[in-house]
Structures are given as structure tokens and as C-alpha cells.
């Protein structure tokens, strides 16, 4: 099956700086890559996603890039704010199969 | 539009007991997936139901089972509870079966504590 690796596991940045989280996947058949944000005591919330026919997608301060050749995708958060502090998960989906999740990145934005 | 709802939100059980958790998907969604989340293991896939049929299953023992009703609501059951079953159980729904490029939306989870 698919294997999704996520790095780093923890990340601390100063408020206003950028944060980058990277994920790699193993199965070239994966074609859908969502990112989720999970705050304490809540379920994961979708923040952005990208499909395999697109190389980059942006939504305000959040962007995701996909490199199909290298089988990796990244989440970029610019101008970080304290409310961005949370655990972020990447995932990959293979047609006809389940979602495979990374192990999560705990992001702390220091005011 | 109401989101995914899960009941109960918190549950305390003792070893050997059994438990049933419930998930109501977003209206119109026909796929429900269940995940176990623990600090050390992240999100572990349990199973997925689509149109009342189990479509995919993760690597969990047979003590973990589920079902889906005609209104797409789903339940999961864990029998003979063990201490290691303590976790946050998350339910996610999507319009179509997973793997079709549909987004999954998560509920708030049920926090199960086994004593």
C-alpha cells in the first residue's frame, strides 16, 4: 500500500515568518493530496488540497506544491500567526483505495 | 449545512467491556470512514463504508467492527476492550467512496478511555 512520510514532526517559528511542512509518498497512483489542521480537542479540518494534474495551489496565506516526479508535496504558510499553531496532517489518496495520512507536524507560532 | 457529528463525545469503559460509537455524516454524503488516533501512531485507518457496504479495511483485529445504515449513518463497535484501545476515534464523511478524489470531512471525534 501507500506510505506517506511527513517532516518535521515539530516546528517552531516566530510570528510573521513562514512555515514549510513536507510530505513524501510512495505510490505513483496517488492522485489527491489534502492537508488538514487539527486544533486541540477538535477533529482535523481540511485547509487546502491539490490534485495530481496541478502543480501548485494557493489560498491566501496557505499554498501547497506537488512534485509528481519526486513524489513529494509541501504545505507553505506565510506570515504565520499564533492561531496557526496546531497539528498539521498531510494525506494521499489512491483511486479505489483509502486515504493514507502522515504522522503529523506540531506547529508552534511564537508571538 | 451541518457537519459530521459523533456521539458520544467522551466515553469511559473498563477492560473487557464493549462499546458502540455513532457517526452521522454530512447530509448527502454516502461514504463514512473511521480512524483511530493516538499520540504515538497518528491517524490509523479502521474501515470505510459506502452504501452500507464495507469497502476498505485497515489492519485492526476482528474486535473492531462497523456497519452503515441506509441513511448513511454509521456505527463502530469494539468488543472486549483493552487498555490500548484508549484513543480518539474519528469519523470522516465524503460524497463518494474514497479514492475518487473526494474530500473527507472529519467529525470532532469520540474520546474513549479504557480503565
Written overview of the protein:
The complex is a heterodimer of chains A (111) and B (115). Chain A is mainly β and 111 residues long. Helix content of chain A is 0%, strand content 57%. Chain A contains no helices and eleven strands. In chain A, the strands form two sheets. In chain A, strands 2, 4, 5, 9, 10 and 11 form a six-stranded mixed β-sheet that branches. In chain A, a hairpin with a 4-residue loop joins β7 and β8. Chain A is globular and about 40 Å long. Chain B has 115 residues and is mainly β. Helices cover 0% and strands 52% of the residues of chain B. In chain B, β4 and β5 form a beta hairpin. The N and C termini of chain B lie far apart (37 Å). The model of chain B has no long low-confidence stretch (mean pLDDT 93). Classes of the chains: A mainly beta (111), B mainly beta (115). The interface between A and B is medium-sized, with 25 and 22 residues.
Care to give the gist of this entry?
With 111 residues, chain A is an all-beta fold.
Amino acid at each position: 500500500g501507500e506510505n506517506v512520510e511527513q517532516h518535521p514532526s515539530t516546528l517552531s517559528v516566530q510570528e510573521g515568518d513562514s512555515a514549510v511542512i513536507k510530505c513524501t509518498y510512495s505510490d505513483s497512483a496517488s492522485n489527491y493530496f489534502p492537508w488538514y489542521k487539527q486544533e486541540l480537542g477538535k477533529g482535523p479540518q481540511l485547509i487546502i488540497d491539490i490534485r495530481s494534474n496541478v502543480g501548485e495551489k494557493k489560498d491566501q496565506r496557505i499554498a501547497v506544491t506537488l512534485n509528481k516526479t519526486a513524489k513529494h508535496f509541501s504545505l507553505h504558510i506565510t506570515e504565520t500567526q499564533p492561531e496557526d499553531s496546531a497539528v498539521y496532517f498531510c494525506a494521499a489518496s489512491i483511486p479505489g483505495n483509502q486515504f493514507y495520512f502522515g504522522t503529523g507536524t506540531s506547529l508552534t507560532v511564537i508571538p | 449545512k451541518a457537519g459530521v457529528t459523533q456521539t458520544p463525545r467522551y466515553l469511559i469503559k473498563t477492560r473487557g467491556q464493549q462499546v458502540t460509537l455513532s457517526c452521522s455524516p454530512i447530509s448527502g454524503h454516502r461514504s463514512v470512514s473511521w480512524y483511530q488516533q493516538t499520540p504515538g501512531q497518528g491517524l490509523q485507518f479502521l474501515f470505510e463504508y459506502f452504501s452500507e457496504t464495507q469497502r476498505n479495511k485497515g489492519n485492526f483485529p476482528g474486535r473492531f467492527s462497523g456497519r452503515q445504515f441506509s441513511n448513511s449513518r454509521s456505527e463502530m463497535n469494539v468488543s472486549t476492550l483493552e487498555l490500548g484501545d484508549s484513543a480518539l476515534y474519528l469519523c470522516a464523511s465524503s460524497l463518494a467512496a474514497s479514492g475518487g478524489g473526494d474530500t473527507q470531512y472529519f467529525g470532532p471525534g469520540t474520546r474513549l478511555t479504557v480503565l
